[in-house]
C-alpha cells in the first residue's frame, strides 16, 4: 500500500516539475514527507 502511495506521489511530482533544479527540489520534498511518515 505504501509503495502505491509513494508511486502516485512521485508521478504527480514528476508531472509538476519543469526543470532539473525543480525536479531536485520536488524529490527532496517527497523524501522529507516519506521520512516523516516513516517516523510515525
Which keywords apply here?
40 residues, mainly alpha, 2 helices, 0% strand, flat
Layout of SSEs?
Blueprint: H1 2-16, H2 20-39
Question: How does this model look, in words?
Answer:
The chain is mainly α. It has one domain (2-39). It is 88% helix and 0% strand. The chain has 2 helices and no strands. It has helices at 2-16, 20-39. Helix 1 runs antiparallel to helix 2. The longest helix has 20 residues, at 20-39. The protein is flat. The protein starts with a helix and ends with a helix. The model has no long low-confidence stretch (mean pLDDT 77).
Mean pLDDT: 77
Note the run of SSEs as H and E.
Answer: HH
The description of the largest β-sheet is: none
Content-based structural category: mainly alpha
**Hey, roughly how much beta strand do the residues contain?**
under 5%
Radius of gyration: 11 Å
> Which regions have little confidence, pLDDT < 50, spanning 5+ residues?
none
Distance between the termini: 16 Å
Gross morphology: flat
Number of strands: 0
Number of domains: 1
| Helical run tally | 2
* Secondary structure: helix percent: over 70%
